[in-house]
Amino acid sequence: MKKIALAILVSFLWSCSEDKPVVDLIVTNANIYTVNENFDKAEAFAVLDGKFLEIGNAKELQEKYAADSIWDANGQTIVPGFIDAHCHFYNLGLEQNKVNLMGTKSFEDVMKRVLNYQNKKQANFIVGRGWDQNDWEVKEFPNKTLLDRLFPNTPVALTRVDGHALLCNQAALDLAGITKDSKIDGGAFIKTNGELTGVLIDNAMGLVWPHYPVPSKSEKIDALNKAQNICFNYGLTTVSDAGLDKDVIHLIDSLQQSGDLDMRIYAMIKNTPENLDYFLNKGKIKTDKLNVQSVKVYADGALGSRGAVLKQPYSDQDNHFGAMVIGVEDYQKLASRLANSEYQMNTHAIGDSANRVVLETYNKVLEDKTDRRWRVEHAQVLTDNDLELFVNKNVMPSVQPTHATSDMYWADERLGEERIKGAYAYKQLLDVSGKLALGTDFPVEKVSPFLTFYAAVARKDLDRVPTGGFQSENKLSREETLKGMTIWAAYSNFEDQEKGSIEAGKLADFIVLNRDIMTVNETQIPNIQVLHTFVSGEEK
Fold first, then answer.
1. Where are the domains of the chain?
2. Residue 196 banded pLDDT, cuts 50, 70, 90
3. CATH code for the part of the protein at 2-75
4. Cα(441)–Cα(351) distance, rounded to whole angstroms?
5. How far apart, in Å, are the Cα atoms of 158 and each of 89, 99, 419?
6. Whose CA is closest to 486, among 477, 475, 495?
7. Are 45 and 54 contacting, i.e. CB atoms less than 8 angstroms apart?
8. pTM summary value
């Protein structure tokens, strides 16, 4: 009788298990920040078919569902997968094979790295990026004299950290047909005593690149995979790539469709006639991994290279205002065209004059529109109450907190003590707009989202300066910062209904951290590590 009773009990338990819905994964014993509307916390969730099915109590979920896999998080912190709202994902991959000039402390340091690179590579064309004269003892643009002597026949093109200035040797200038008499709208050829120094600003840079070799398909694929590996290691599950051409977008789509690329990419198309005609006629492209519905436009250049457009002259250069990369009339025509399409307009605007043009144009062409979410990328310097123009819900700011802590050592020299008060004003932007998308602009800045988080909440760099934080009144709270890196970034991409929080029905993109980002000592935020990155409920 005991054997019969035991058999009946086993059969009963088996049948109960069989009656439970089966899910792919249940995560238990976790410290989960859901980033839902109430910023609720939870201890467990269930995942089915790549989406969160239910969030709640571990015991109840395990009683309700059978699971192919049950994962005990051991109390570790889980947050939604990070979304970088403004970066250059493809370029990050490409630059793994270039001369890395980040962190150089002098022009001599730059030259050492170029020489070391060339000794190893013996390249026919030398490309590098990352120098910043503001980090040197002599804070002046470099010149090509030494490059000409060392590389008389090999074209050399070295991009400034912000991507808005380029140092070329004579071989590269000759290749591009650039002379001391060359002129271009929206750019400049820096000269000393009437002679070219080799430094090109903004649109002038575009004369060089057409003469450099284009990456092969295999090199492009390699770049995308390298960038993906770097980003997954930092917990990024979606990246907003600020400016891609049609061929790269198609390559990304094909790799995603074949399962060879898992990163979710919100791709802003470059503002070229070919791209505009193709994509605007085609309409939006949307898959689980690719979102193409926006155009990246440059209004002006960068503050560090004095290409940002200011209403009043630069404080450290008489009668210099910067220059618009695109003519105001052309910009307004483009905005009208995009307003009558399905596409977002995402405009790089640094100087207060450029921001004024962008915001006035946005407000005018979107006057009778709703829910367009046009973005001002960087929104870096705002004066004369122009900040209030962000009250329009068709418009939102997209900013990069590490720009503030990178630029704080010299930005006041460019802007002066009054104008700097309206720069990097992230808390003020949030108060007016209600949402703030956060990113890094990598590889201009480092990839780590933890540096973004630290810069936003502490307003300090890795040396923990300044003591009270740079313009501390513009610090963001930790909750605001996490929202900016998840749900608000998703909103800026029109993706907030599918990602950006841990809620039922949304994509199961989440990351596991070794420290609680919401409570850990502020000084430890930059050192937080990602233990696991999950996309659609699968670990990467």
1. 2-75, 83-88+215-539, 125-211
2. very high
3. 2.30.40.10
4. 17
5. 19, 8, 31
6. 495
7. yes
8. 0.92
